Amino acid sequence: MFFHAHPDDEALLTAGTMAMLAAEGHRVVLVVATAGERGLAEMEPGEALGETRLEELYKSAALLGCARVECLGYGDSGLSPKGGSAEERPDNAFIDADTEAAAKALAAILQEERADLLAIYDPAGGYGHPDHVQVHRVGKRAAKIAGTEIVLEATVNRDPLLWLLRVAGRFYKFPPEFDVRTFESAYSPGEVITHRVNVRKYTKQKRASMAAHASQASGGDSDRTLAVMLKVPRPLYRFVFGTEWYVRRDLPPGARLTHPFDRWPT
C-alpha cells in the first residue's frame, strides 16, 4: 500500500516502484488523504478541482497497475507552511485531523488488504508540505496499529539534488520565491537511505502517470514541477527519474537494498 497526501504525489515519488511491484504480480493499493482541491490549476468554469484531480488519480493508478484506489476524504491543507491560518483552511483539513482517528481509518484498509508493506514519507514530508508531514505521522501510527511489518519512507537523495540545483542555478533563473537553501533540510541525506530502487524499466509508466495529472502542469506564475519534468527528453528522463529512494528505519542507515522486499542482510 502506498499512502500519499494528494493526487499526483504518487507520480512524483513512487510511481516506478508501484509499476514494478504490479508487474511482478503484487496487489498494489493507492490511498490518498485528500483530493488536492487547493492545488494550483487553470480550471474551466464550473469545474471542481478536487473532482478533476481524483479523476486524474484513477487514470494514473490504472496506468501503474493499481488494484484499488481510496481517498480518506480529508481537506487539502494548502501550500502555506503549516497550512496557513485556521481561517484559510477547510474545516476538515488534513493537518488538523486527529492523528489517531486518521491512523485507524488507514489501518482498517491495511488490515482489510493484509498489506505486507506501507510506503509513506520521511519525517520532513519531503519538501515540508504540511499534509506530507501529516502523512508520515498518520502512516507510521497506522502501520503500528495494523501490524504492518515493512514501512518505507519515500524520499529523494538530498545530496545529488542539492548539487543539481546549485549547478542549474548558474544557467537558469529560478522564480523569486524559490530558495535552493530550503532543500538543505528537505528530503533525506544519502547516508540514511536504505533502498535505491532501479525503476528505469518502468519510466514509461512513470512518465504516463505524471502526464495523467494534467491539471497540475499549469497554474501559478511560474513553471510547475510536473510541467518541467515532462519536458525532459525521454532518454534523459529515464536516467534522471530511474531511481526511487526509501528509508526503512528498522534497518541500518545506509543499507544498500534495491527492492522493497529485500531482507537484511542480503
Automatic annotation (TrEMBL):
GO terms for molecular function: hydrolase activity, acting on carbon-nitrogen (but not peptide) bonds, in linear amides. Keywords: Zinc. It holds the Pfam family PIG-L. InterPro entries: GlcNAc_PI_deacetylase-related, LmbE-like_dom_sf. One of its GO terms (biological process) is glycoside metabolic process. The keyword Zinc applies. It comes from the Bacteria. PANTHER family: 1D-MYO-INOSITOL 2-ACETAMIDO-2-DEOXY-ALPHA-D-GLUCOPYRANOSIDE DEACETYLASE (PTHR12993:SF26), N-ACETYLGLUCOSAMINYL-PHOSPHATIDYLINOSITOL DE-N-ACETYLASE-RELATED (PTHR12993). This is PIG-L domain-containing protein. It comes from [Actinomadura] parvosata subsp. kistnae. The lineage of its organism: Bacteria, Bacillati, Actinomycetota, Actinomycetes, Streptosporangiales.
